[in-house]
Design a protein that fits this description.
Helix content: 25-40%
Radius of gyration: 26 Å
C-alpha cells in the first residue's frame, strides 16, 4: 500500500505512475476523501479545544452546560460522518499499485519488455521435437483425460516416472536453496485468510483470479509469497538479522483465463501448478542487490539442467500490482517451440511491508520500513515441460538430467 501522506504529497507522480502502468485506480476519489476527512478531523479538534477551554473556565452555568452539550453532540455527529469516509478511503487506497522504479522500461504491455541476455543455446536434438503432451501420453507419465474426470478441464495428472520427476525437481530446487544459499525452508498452509492476500497485494486487485472456499474466510493460495509475507504480519524484525531469506514449496491455484486459441493443449496453463518460491526481507538499501541475487539463483538451476533461457526486464504495463521492478526468466522448450516463463523475480520495496505492517528495528526504540522481494525458483509444470522436451530422444524416451538422478534412485532414462 502506498502511504496516504505520500499519495497526498505526490499526487501528480502517483497519477503518472498509473498512466505508465496502464492501470485504472480511484485516485481522484482518494484525494477527495482525504481532503474531506482532514476537514472533519480539524473541525473535531477545534471543537474539543473549545470544550476544554469552556470546562476550565470554572463552574459552568446553564448556558455553558448547554454549549458543552451542543459541542459534544456535534463532535459525535462528525465522528459518525467521518467513519464511513475513512473506511472508504482505506479500501480505495488498496487499489493503488506500487510505484514503478524509475529504471523500469515504460510500455503498456509485454511487447515492451526488454530481453537483457540469453544464457546458453538450445539443445541440438537432431530430430523434430515432440510436444510434452505427446511424449507424456506415449510414455504413460502424463494423464490429462483422467484428471479431467476428477476435476474438469485445465487439470492434469502425472503418473509413475512423471510424478517422480516432478517431485524430484521440487526437492532438488529446495535443497539447492537451503544447502548452498542459506535459505530457511518453510512448509506453509495451502489456504490463506483474506487479510493475508490483502497484505501481499493479491486482493482486492485480483479477486477474480483466486479461488475462495465457500462460506469461509479462506482462499486457496495463488503463490507461497502471500504466506511468507504474512508470517511476520504486525511484527518488528531485527535489522541486524536481515536479510531474512525463506523458501517454500506450495501448489498454486489461479483462475487465469487462457487466450483464445492458445495454451489449450498440454500443461502450460492450468488452475493448479506447483512452485518453489523464494522470499526475502531486506534493508531498503540492500534490496537492489537482493533482486540481482534472486535472478541469479533462479537461473542457476536452469544452467545446471543445461537449458537455454533468457532474462527479461518487465515494462511498467506488465509489472505485477505489488512490484516496483521485476525480472522474468523464460526457458526455451523445443516441442511447443516457445519461451516459457518459469520465474518472475520482483522487488516490492516497502509496498507489501506497509500493507502487512512488517517493520524492522533499526535502533533502540525506533522502527523503520523494510523491503520485500520474491522470486520463483522455479515454477512447475513449465520447468517440467522444458525438461521433458529438451531431454527427449528420437525413440520417444526421456533422458533424466544428471542433477536429478540421485532423487530418482539413479534412473537414467524414462521409457514406456
Amino acid at each position: 500500500m502506498l502511504p496516504l501522506p505520500f499519495v497526498r504529497e505526490h499526487a501528480d507522480a502517483v497519477r503518472e505512475n498509473l498512466r505508465k502502468r496502464n492501470v485504472e485506480a480511484p485516485l481522484d476519489r482518494i484525494l477527495e476523501l482525504d481532503r474531506r476527512s482532514r476537514e472533519l478531523r480539524a473541525e473535531t479538534e477545534s471543537l474539543r479545544a473549545e470544550r476544554n477551554r469552556a470546562s476550565k473556565a470554572g463552574k459552568p452555568d446553564e448556558k455553558t452546560r448547554a454549549q458543552l452539550r451542543e459541542i459534544g453532540e456535534r463532535i459525535g455527529a462528525i465522528e459518525r460522518e467521518l467513519k464511513p469516509f475513512e473506511d472508504e478511503l482505506h479500501q480505495k487506497l488498496l487499489h493503488l499499485p506500487n510505484m514503478a522504479d524509475p529504471s523500469v522500461p515504460v510500455g503498456p504491455d509485454d511487447s515492451f519488455d526488454v530481453v537483457l541476455r540469453t544464457v546458453g543455446k538450445p539443445r541440438e536434438l537432431g530430430f523434430v521435437a515432440k510436444p510434452h503432451w505427446e511424449l507424456g501420453e506415449r510414455l504413460g507419465i502424463l494423464d490429462i483425460p483422467r484428471a479431467v474426470k476428477l476435476a474438469g478441464a485445465r487439470f492434469f495428472a502425472l503418473r509413475g516416472a512423471g510424478a517422480a520427476l516432478e517431485r524430484a525437481l521440487i526437492a532438488w530446487l529446495i535443497d539447492e536453496k537451503v544447502r548452498l544459499h542459506g535459505f530457511t525452508e518453510v512448509y506453509p498452509p495451502f489456504l490463506a485468510k483474506e487479510e493475508v492476500l490483502i497484505g501481499s497485494g493479491s486482493l482486492p486487485k485480483s479477486r477474480e483470479v483466486v479461488f475462495k472456499v465457500e462460506e469461509e474466510d479462506l482462499f486457496l493460495v495463488p503463490t507461497a509469497e502471500v504466506q511468507l509475507l504474512s508470517m511476520y504480519r504486525d511484527e518488528v524484525l531485527d535489522a541486524a538479522a536481515l536479510p531474512l531469506r525463506l523458501v517454500a514449496y506450495t501448489p498454486c491455484f489461479r483462475n487465469e483465463k487462457m487466450s483464445a486459441g492458445r495454451d489449450v493443449r498440454g500443461i502450460k496453463r492450468d488452475y493448479q501448478f506447483d512452485k518453489v518460491e523464494m522470499f526475502v526481507y531486506s534493508k531498503p538499501e540492500d534490496s537492489p542487490a537482493e533482486l540481482d541475487r534472486l535472478v541469479r539463483l533462479a537461473g542457476e538451476p536452469l544452467e545446471k539442467l543445461g537449458l537455454c533461457f533468457r532474462v527479461k526486464e518487465l515494462c511498467t504495463g506488465n509489472l505485477a500490482f505489488q512490484a516496483a521492478k521485476a525480472i522474468d526468466l523464460d526457458v526455451w522448450s523445443p516441442g511447443v517451440e516457445e519461451w516459457l516463463e518459469v520465474s518472475s523475480c520482483s522487488n516490492c520495496t516497502e509496498f507489501q511491508s506497509h500493507r502487512a505492517n512488517v517493520r524492522m528495528r533499526a535502533a533502540k526504540d525506533r522502527t523503520a520500513p523494510l523491503h520485500t522481494l520474491n522470486g520463483s525458483a522455479l515454477g512447475l509444470a513449465r520447468t517440467l515441460i522444458a525438461v521433458m522436451e529438451n531431454y527427449q530422444r528420437a525413440d520417444g524416451s526421456i533422458e533424466v538430467p544428471l542433477v536429478l538422478r540421485p532423487y530418482l534412485h539413479g534412473l537414467e532414462v524414462i521409457t514406456a
